[in-house]
Amino acid sequence: MTRIDPGFASEITKYGASDFNACFNCGNCTAICGLTANDANFPRMFIRYGMLGLKEEILKSKELWLCYACGDCSETCPRQAAPGNYMAALHRYAIASYEPTGLTKLLFKNKLLFILFTSIMALVLGVFLFTLKPDHVVSRWIFKMIPYAVIHNMGLVIFTITGMSIIWGLLNMFLRLKSNKSGEAKKNSCLSSWKEVFGELATMKRYRTCDLEEDSYWKDKPAFQKPWFIHWSVMWGFIGLLAATLLDFLLKDPATTTWWPARILGTLAGLFLIYGTSMMLLYRSRKATRSYAETNIADNVFLWFLWIAGFTGFWMEISVFFTFNHPANHYILLVHTIISMELVLLFAFSKFAHAVYRPLALFYYFRENLSNN
After folding, report:
1. Of 98, 131, 149, at which residue does a domain stop?
2. How far is CA 86 from CA 47, 107, 286, 362, in A?
3. According to the model, what pLDDT value does residue 317 have?
4. In this prediction, what percent of the chain has a pLDDT beyond 70?
5. What are the φ and ψ backbone dihedral angles of 17, each rounded to 5 degrees?
6. Which of 56, 119, 344, 347 is 20 to 30 A from 241, comparing alpha carbons?
7. Residues with Cβ < 8 Å from 141, sequence gap 6 or more?
8. Does residue 26 sit in the same domain as residue 129?
9. Residue 60 belongs to a domain
10. Does residue 151 belong to any structural domain of this protein?
């Protein structure tokens, strides 16, 4: 039985939505969107869901995650209802709803609590790492202040906590998507569907259709300046650094030797990460488009965390490579370790969790619509 909740409209504003009630259902947002196809008529459909308070319809919809919140719809909305901003808020709402602890809801809905929580977490991690055996001597200066075993074990604990939350959230999402039947739609094979998913992640071919309108701000910009490439850089930069870190944890002791495959992967991924986050922060500071002008504080903090992690990581890599032994390196290592741990710990509790939710939604979408793409 479908339950209507009129109070949902006020709840979703706490996740960053603007006055979407100004919408009079003209359909302009759906018409302008290059990603809508077949029954995936967002944002219009989701605005109706929001007005009626159809929470389950939102949470079990794969179409929600087809939107990249590029903001083309907001730029052309005659009522200034900011449908793109609304879709981004729905992403946060869905992530918070899938995650089991309730922490994500608190962090997304309360800006002061988010700042306080991340600050206290950084302070606790910093005090712990800074006071732990400060006089201990290891084979390399980089581990003079923080023994490798401590970093390794803490990393495993953090990965476990975040991993369990992500798995629970994915299972929650999977059960909802599974229950969302689409009539007699033809089912494509799992292999071909996953192939399409990985193709989308590798090339952002769907996202690139957001920049094709004649009056688009991005129309004549080179590819490396467009939002799809910036998003691609951040995503693969983060994944590459995560993979390099895991390889270091599993295959070698970084306190004794340099393992070049992980070093090369980490360097390339770090370059992409710093470039992508720098461009996103630049666009937001300049308010290049409405979607960049209307941003959430949690998203901005997370971007800064990514940028700092990339910058301090490169500082350490250059210092080690050129044997640049300076007392400042100890503090930079401390900052890098704290930020990196926070990023991993907050992965399941931030917007970045869409990196695992979107592929699952895309899989179900391609299962039913592969022949039409």
Report:
1. 98
2. 8, 18, 21, 20
3. 77
4. 83
5. -75, 150
6. 119
7. 325, 329
8. no
9. yes
10. yes
Looking at the fold, whether 66 and 172 belong to one and the same domain comes out as no
DSSP state of 257: -
pLDDT of 51 > 80? The answer is yes
What separation in angstroms does the CA of 105 have from each of 99, 214, 238? 9, 39, 24
Is there a single domain that holds both residue 206 and residue 313? yes
| Residue 62 · residue 120 · CB < 8 Å | no
Instruction: List the structure tokens of 121.
Output: 């977490």
- Output the average pLDDT for the chain: 82
What are 26's two structure tokens?
Answer: 């003209």
For residue 292, give Cα distances in angstroms to 209, 277, 295.
18, 13, 6
Domain that holds residue 23: 8-98
| DSSP3 helix / strand / coil % (the chain, rounded to 5) | 70, 0, 30
According to the model, what pLDDT value does residue 142 have? 43
- If asked whether residues 52 and 178 sit together in one domain, one would say no
Alpha carbon separation from 194 to 181, 188, 362, 366, 367 (Å, rounded):
19, 10, 9, 8, 9
User: Model confidence at 332, in pLDDT bands (50, 70, 90)?
Assistant: confident
Cα 66 to Cα 61: distance, rounded to the nearest angstrom = 10
Whether residue 236 is found in the same domain as residue 365: yes
The verdict on whether omega for the bond into residue 43 sits within 30 degrees of 0, i.e. cis, is yes
Instruction: Please state, in angstroms and as integers, the Cα–Cα distance from residue 94 to each residue in 169, 191, 332, following that order.
Output: 10, 27, 36
pLDDT digits (tens, 9 = 90+) for 148-170: 666 667 667 767 877 888 899 99
Return d(Cα 177, Cα 364) in angstroms, integer. Answer: 8
Instruction: Pick the last residue of a domain from 98, 130, 159.
Output: 98
Looking at the structure of the chain, the number of domains it has is 2
Domain of 46: which CATH number? 1.10.1060.10
For 256-274, the pLDDT digits (tens) are: 556 677 788 888 998 999 9
Tell me, rounded to whole angstroms, the distance of Cα 40 from its chain centroid: 22
Query: Are 258 and 312 members of one domain?
Result: yes
Say if residue 120 is in the same domain as residue 68.
Answer: no
Output the six-digit token pair for 211. Answer: 């920049």
CA atoms within 13 A on the CB side of 54: 13
